[in-house]
Amino acid sequence: MSNKQKITFLKTDSQELKSQRNLMKPLLLAVGILVCLFVTAIALQLALVSPQSLLWVFWGMVFASGVLVYVLVELLKKYRALQVRIDLISTGKDLVTGLPDPHEFEVRVDVECRRCVREFTPLTLMYVGFDVEDIEEQDAIKVAQNLIHVVCRPGDMVAKVDATTFGLILPSTNELVLQLADRCLKGVKQLGLKPPVSIGLCTFQPRSDLESTAAMANVQQLLINAKTRGGDQVCADAEPLANPSVTYSY
Fold this sequence. Notes:
Alpha-Beta Plaits; 6 helices; 58% helix; single chain; alpha+beta
């Protein structure tokens, strides 16, 4: 398990413990109401309270019951929200956008690299990144929706690589991928986000030494180059076309 995953699960465990502590509040309130009812019943049996005092006790318990219902409803909302987050983590999804998380992205890149070699088809990896430390959650959701709309082929994948970077896996692609990158850049810029957006992409040809870690590092460097040049641009690279023989092995 990676460090990022450990941190994510630790945060989730902390939230779960906090929810468990919050559960004690309505339970204590409910116990208090029951104690009041019990004391009131005993007082009625012993005729220790006047009707006026009993009326005040009655309205006090009505108010406390209303508070209890409100607290329980709010606690239920928090529990459902936490359950959704836990479900997303367990299925390898980003908590904000619902896209595949970095771990799922790395696994899929490794699979596609091996498929690229096995089936003799090119593979393109694309990073769409922003030159800031973090982006707002609503902005991340807008970018994710925009990229999903642009990348619509079966087998393509849009994922969240880190806090400010989205990764695209585009199997069996050719030189037209540059047009796709331009559409992605144009679509994200039309969202009106403040930080500049940059794109780095590379098309890899099937070769025996194609490896996912090196491929992702290559695309990451291209993204850095695009940011260094001022952003709002595409920095692309493509390996020369390979023509492996029928008996090609790896």
